[in-house]
Design brief:
It is built from ten helices and eight strands. With 251 residues, it is an alpha/beta fold. Strand 4, helix 5 and strand 5 form a beta-alpha-beta unit.
């Protein structure tokens, strides 16, 4: 997902972007940082602003296509620069300033006709983040979360039942997929294939699925703030065989 935050200088774009990126575990692209390196050949003419927008859009799509959330913040002042950036999944307009110390930028800024959210000065930062995560259906990495760690070779109804039980612990559940592909004959599926099988489960729409190392041991000391428990789902569920499921799938 690409989340674009636009607005006049000093409107709070970068502050919001940094906090949002931290809360949703996203990559943050800031226009000033990109200008200091990738776009150090560009100035602030409209032509150069268009090219800067194009580059930011290109980098955002490269990262998004690799499965990352991307939060990018820059002025992006005109329809032309916004077209050059390309499509973002969500556009947030920081409409918090009427006057700035950058009259040329202010003069050229065109109010966006299409956006998903708009914030003014009256909404506090914490509330803005909550509105974004809840409104866009994003997983908040600061919320209490239950971890389901497994191979899921393949995902089946037993895992589905455990996921539902996990939701009784915390509202947010993360499915951690161990990177076991090819390590044994029982692990024929890559992470992408496991994720695809999970996505076919209608109950798992918008589930939080994360690739993990091939974790074989978990250790902890005292007062770590979490617990590890085995959940008894009954004889029928425990009897489900992943080996038989793979045979049925021909893998």
């Amino acid at each position: 997902m690409i989340i674009q935050i636009i607005g006049l200088p000093g409107s709070g774009k970068t502050t919001l972007a940094k906090e949002l990126a931290n809360r949703i575990n996203a990559i943050h692209l800031n226009a000033d940082e990109v200008r200091s390196d990738l776009s150090k050949d560009l100035g602030f003419t409209l032509e150069d602003r268009v090219e800067q927008a194009r580059r930011l859009g290109a980098v955002s799509r490269i990262l998004s296509n690799q499965g990352h959330h991307v939060v990018v913040d820059f002025v992006n002042p005109t329809k032309e620069t916004r077209d050059a950036f390309g499509k973002s999944d969500r556009l947030i307009w920081m409409n918090t300033f009427e006057k700035t110390n950058y009259p040329d930028t202010e003069k050229m800024f065109e109010y966006p006709e299409i956006f998903h959210m708009c914030f003014d000065k009256t909404i506090p930062m914490k509330e803005r983040i909550d509105i974004i995560t809840e409104g866009f259906g994003l997983h908040d990495w600061s919320k209490p979360t239950t971890l389901m760690l497994g191979r899921y070779q393949p995902w089946h109804e037993g895992h589905n039942a455990l996921y539902k039980e996990a939701q009784n612990r915390t509202e947010q559940v993360v499915v951690g997929v161990r990177n076991t592909h090819g390590t044994t004959e029982k692990d024929p599926l890559t992470f992408d294939e496991v994720k695809e099988h999970i996505s076919k489960d209608s109950y798992m729409d918008n589930a939080m699925i994360i690739k993990m190392p091939n974790i074989t041991n978990i250790v902890y000391g005292r007062d770590v703030g979490y617990k590890i428990e085995q959940v008894d789902l009954g004889a029928y569920i425990h009897a489900i065989s992943a080996t038989e499921k793979r045979k049925e799938m021909g893998i």
